[in-house]
Amino acid sequence: MRQDSSYGFQNFVVTPSQYTAGSEQVLYAPLATGVNPGFPSPVFPLSTTTNPTAVYVTPSPDIAGSVFDGHSFEIRLAAKFTTAATCSILVNMYQVTNAVLTAGTSSTLYKTLTQASPSGTGITKLVTGTSTAANTTSGTLTFTQQYTWDSVSQLLGINNAATTYQKGVVVSNTQSAATVASLNAIDLNFTPSFTFATNVPTVLTVTEFAIVRV
C-alpha cells in the first residue's frame, strides 16, 4: 500500500544565463531573490557567478530515520521548456554526500559538484541520460527512479530502471551505479544535471523535483 511522503520543490524557474551550452551542470539556486520562493535559505544561499549553489532533495531530518529507513522511495524530476533555436537536452542524476554539501560553496570539494561534469569523492553518478533533440518548440521532460536505503546496511540500492520521457517519448538511459555503500541518512542527497547541446532553452521550469516515500 502506498503511503506517499514527499519533500522537494515545485515550479522552480531555472535561470538560463547560469548554463553554458555543451557543459554538464547541476541544478543551481538562483542568482537573485524574487526568482524562486524560498531562496535564499540557510540550506540554499543564492548562487554567485563564481560560486553557484547546487539544489538537491533529501529526506527531511525528522523523517530520515523513520518512514524512509528501509522503505522504497522515488526521486522525481519534471520540467517544461521553451527553445528558440536548435537544442538537445540530456539529464543525469547524482547522489552527493553531506561532506561535499557542507564544505562551503567556495571550497574545492564543493566546486567539483557545481562545475562542469561533476565527479570526485562523495559524488556518485547514478544515471546517465541520452541527449535528445528538443527542436525549436516547447516541451516537457520527466525522470523517475526508485531506491531503498536502510540504517543497518547503510547501502543505497537501486530498485528499478530509471524512466525518462521527453515530450512524451521514452528516452534511454544507463544505470551508472548499481549501489552506493557506506551512506548515513544525511548522505541521501540527490541532484540532477543538465547538458544543453547547441543552445540553452530560453525558458526552463522544473515543475517538480522531489524525494517521495512510496
Describe the structure.
This protein has 214 residues and is mainly beta. The protein has one domain (5-213). It has 2 helices and 14 strands. The chain has helices at 98-101, 108-114; strands at 5-14, 24-26, 72-82, 88-96, 123-128, 132-133, 138-149, 156-158, 163-166, 169-171, 174-175, 179-180, 189-197, 203-213. The strands form 2 sheets. Strands 1, 3, 7, 8, 9, 10, 12 and 14 form an 8-stranded antiparallel β-sheet that branches. Strands 2, 4, 5, 6, 11 and 13 form a 6-stranded antiparallel β-sheet that branches. A hairpin with a 6-residue loop joins strand 7 and strand 8 (156-158). The longest helix has 7 residues, at 108-114. The chain is globular.
The number of domains: 1
Count of helices? 2
* Proportion of residues in extended strands: 35-45%
Poorly predicted segments:
none
Oligomer: single chain
Name the average pLDDT: 93
Overall 3D form = globular
**Helix content percent band:** under 10%
Give Rg in angstroms: 16 Å
Set out the fold topology.
Layout: E1 5-14, E2 24-26, E3 72-82, E4 88-96, H1 98-101, H2 108-114, E5 123-128, E6 132-133, E7 138-149, E8 156-158, E9 163-166, E10 169-171, E11 174-175, E12 179-180, E13 189-197, E14 203-213
Antiparallel strand pairs: 1-14, 2-13, 3-7, 3-14, 4-5, 4-6, 4-13, 5-11, 7-8, 7-9, 8-12, 9-10
